[in-house]
Amino acid sequence: MPVEAFAGRYRLIDLIGTGGMGSVWRAWDLRRSAYVAAKVLGQHDAATLLRFVREQSLRIEHPHVVAPHGWAADDDKVVFAMDLVRGGSVATLLGDHGPLPPSYVAVLLDQLLHGLSAVHAAGVVHRDLKPANLLLDVTGTGRPHLRLSDFGVAGLLDEPRMTRHSTVLGTPGYIAPEQLAGADPDPRQDLYTVGAVAAELLTGERPGADGKLPHVDGPLADFIHRSTATDPSHRPESAHTAARLLAASGALPPPGTTPWTTTPDTPEVFDQLPPLPPPWTPTGPTTQPPPTPRTPSPATPAPGTTSPATPTPAAPAPSTTAPATPSPAAAGPAAPGPAAPRPAASGGERHEREAAGGGRSSQHPRAATTAPNDLQTITSSPPASRQHSATTADQPALGPNRRRLLVWVATVSLTGAIALLGTATWLLLT
Predict the structure, then answer these.
(1) Rounded Cα gap, residues 384 and 46, in angstroms
(2) Second label for 59, Cα 20 to 30 Å away, from 125, 169, 388, 389?
(3) In this predicted model, what pLDDT tens digit does every residue of 282-326 receive, in sequence order?
(4) Distance of alpha carbon 178 from alpha carbon 231, whole angstroms
(5) Element (H or E) spanning 28, and its range?
(6) Which CATH number among 3.40.47.10, 3.90.79.20, 3.40.50.150, 3.30.200.20 corresponds to the domain 10-85?
(7) Is 419's pLDDT higher than 70?
(8) Integer Cα distance of 23 and 37 in angstroms
(9) Whole-angstrom Cα distance, residue 79 to residue 401?
(10) What pLDDT was estimated at residue 56?
C-alpha cells in the first residue's frame, strides 16, 4: 500500500471535510475491513484534547446517530473513527435544492427527534445542532435517512463544565437564549435548535445571529413556534414529547410514502464522496499479486575469452586409432582434481577469501568470471552470516507505534488530571 496505516489500524485515503477541531478523512479500518470516516485532531491544547477524548468516549448506538466506534494515537496525532456517511449533509441538500417540501422536512425532524431521544437518555446535550451536522445516507428521491453527528462541544448533564460561564459554545443563530447567556446544558436547548433548523429548511433562510427566525406558515408553524419559545418551560419537555407534537401537526406522511415525489422539483440525495483513488475499490483495496522473483541469467564471458567453469573441448583429430589430446591453449584450464579435505571455513573467512579472489569463491564453482563492469551471478547458497541475520530479523520486537501509544495515553491521563485539579481549585476559590 502507498500509505502507512495510522497507528497500525487506519489507512487514510483522501480528505473529505474539515472542521474546527480537525479534519475528516475517508479511511480503511484494517481491523473491521471496512471504510470509515476518520476524524484527525489538529493543533490542540489541554481543553481541546479533553473534549476530544470525551467525544470519542460516547458510544450511542442508534440508527439516527453517528458516534465514534474506535480511536488511535500516533506521536502528536489523534484520530477516532465513525461510520462513513456518503450522502453529504442537510446543508448540502439545502444548498442544491433550496427550500424543502413540508412533508420531507417533517420526516427529517422526526428522525432527528428520535436520535435526540437516545442522546438525551445517555445524559448528553448536543449543543451544536445545525444542518451541517445532520448527515444523510444516499437514498435518491426516496425517504431520507438522517444521522446526527459531531459531538465536539456536547455537554454532559450533572457534570463539571469544561469551559467558563462566559464561554459560549455553539453556532450563532441556532443557540437557545439561555444557552447564549451561559446556562448549564439542558435538553430543551437542543429542542430550540430543532425548531430553528426546521424554519431554515422550509424557507431556505438561515436564522439571524441575533436569534431572529424566518417567518413560517403551514402545518409546521405551531411546532416551530412552541419549540423556539424564549422561556424553556414553554417548550416541549423532551424530544419524545416534541415528536408527538410533530406527529399531531399532520405534516408527517405515513411510513413508506413519499408525497414529495409528485412535486416538480423532487429532493434527491446523491453520493457526495469523490471516486476512490487507485488501488481502492468499493469493496476495499485491490489484491495485488506478489512480484515474480527475477532469476539471474548466466554471465556471458567477454569476447575473446573463455570461462574457466565451462572448458571448451578440443576438436577430435582425424586419426582413427586414438582421440586427440586437447591442447591447453584451446581447451582452457583443466578441471581441478580432487583436493585434499580441509576444515570448513566460517562465514567471515569465506567472505575474506572471496574478496581476495575477485569475488570468486571455491565453495561455489558455478560463479562465473566476468568483465570488470559486469555483474556476477548470484550463488544458490546464501552465506551463513545472511542466514543468521534473517533469523534474527524474524524475532518479534516491541513496535514503535505501541510505545508511542503508551506515552500518549500517559500524557492524556496526566493532562486530564491537571485540568480537573485546576477546575476544582477554581471552583473552590470562586
Answers:
(1) 54
(2) 169
(3) 999 986 544 555 555 555 544 554 444 444 444 444 444 444 444
(4) 8
(5) strand 22-29
(6) 3.30.200.20
(7) yes
(8) 10
(9) 14
(10) 58
Q: What is the CATH number of domain 90-262?
A: 1.10.510.10
β partners of residue 284? 281
Task: Indicate if the pLDDT at residue 59 is higher than 50.
Answer: yes
Contacts by 417-424, CB closer than 8 A, 24 or more apart = 418/46, 419/46, 419/47, 419/50, 419/162, 420/160, 423/160, 423/162, 424/160
Q: How far apart are CA 412 and CA 198, in angstroms?
A: 39
Catalytic sites, residue numbers: 128
Whether the bond into 296 is cis, omega within 30 of 0: no
Confidence band, pLDDT 50/70/90 cuts, at residue 214: very high
Q: Does 39 show up as a binding residue in the annotation? A: yes
pLDDT band at 50 (very low <50, low <70, confident <90, very high): low
Looking only at the bridges linking them, the beta strands covering 146-148 and 134-136 are antiparallel
Please state whether the predicted TM-score (pTM) of the whole model is above 0.90.
no
